[in-house]
Design goal:
Belongs to the TSR2 family. This is Pre-rRNA-processing protein TSR2 homolog. One of its GO terms (biological process) is rRNA processing. It comes from Drosophila guanche (Fruit fly). May be involved in 20S pre-rRNA processing. The chain is mainly alpha-helical. The chain has a domain at about 1-115. It is built from eight helices and no strands. α1 packs antiparallel against α3, α1 packs antiparallel against α5 (about 85-105) and α3 (about 40-60) packs antiparallel against α4. It is globular, with a radius of gyration of 23 Å.
Length: about 200
């Protein structure tokens, strides 16, 4: 019974360690704030943090390279973000070191190190609102705005997978010509991207 209590204590404390590290990860926060994960970027970031915790707790022997590959893939898939600043190796190194220290009940040493992290607000919680500014590729002007100032290019998440990729509106005549399998050079200022 003592081993089960010790494991529960480890899991609780390691969870706090993971949360502290992820809440201080600037690249993740910037990806969310810049809309790289879409409207639900904060929730996706929380899921990445949860998955990383589960992955570390659920696997006895994890190499740093293995954990790095997991987090890099998650950042690429979920946020279309590559971290070239060595933050992922640093995070993984610390997570694995703190995991080992937590398993050996070295919590005072861990706390002494974590207290050195810059103080910051815990933002990876569902009750905390993070505002994001969508990054719109090269066009940061009002190109996609209608007369009311609304963004006409907005799509529901369910539409994203099946929607053809078009960078601007296509006229009916262009659509008819494309459907007739004849290539029509779009008017200046229009770009049509076809699916394979």
């Amino acid at each position: 019974m003592a081993a089960a209590a010790q494991q529960k204590e480890f899991q609780k404390n390691f969870r706090l360690i993971v949360e502290k590290i992820f809440n201080n990860w600037q690249n993740l926060r910037l990806a969310v704030e810049h809309g790289m994960g879409g409207r639900n970027g904060q929730q996706v970031a929380i899921q990445i943090m949860d998955y990383t915790y589960q992955y570390c707790v659920g696997n006895e022997k994890i190499s740093q390279g293995e954990l790095e590959a997991v987090i890099e893939e998650l950042m690429d898939q979920e946020f279309n973000t590559l971290c070239d600043d060595n933050s992922i190796p640093e995070i993984c190194s610390n997570l694995l070191r703190y995991k080992q220290m937590a398993q050996q009940n070295q919590y005072p040493d861990i706390e002494a190190e974590l207290i050195k992290l810059p103080p910051g607000k815990e933002w990876l919680r569902p009750d905390v609102k993070v505002t994001y500014t969508p990054v719109d590729g090269d066009s940061s002007s009002d190109e996609n705005m209608d007369e009311d100032g609304d963004d006409d290019d907005e799509m529901d998440e369910s539409d994203e997978e099946d929607a053809p990729i078009v960078s601007a509106r296509v006229t009916r005549s262009q659509t008819r010509m494309q459907n007739a399998d004849k290539f029509v050079e779009p008017e200046d200022g229009w770009t049509t991207v076809r699916r394979k």
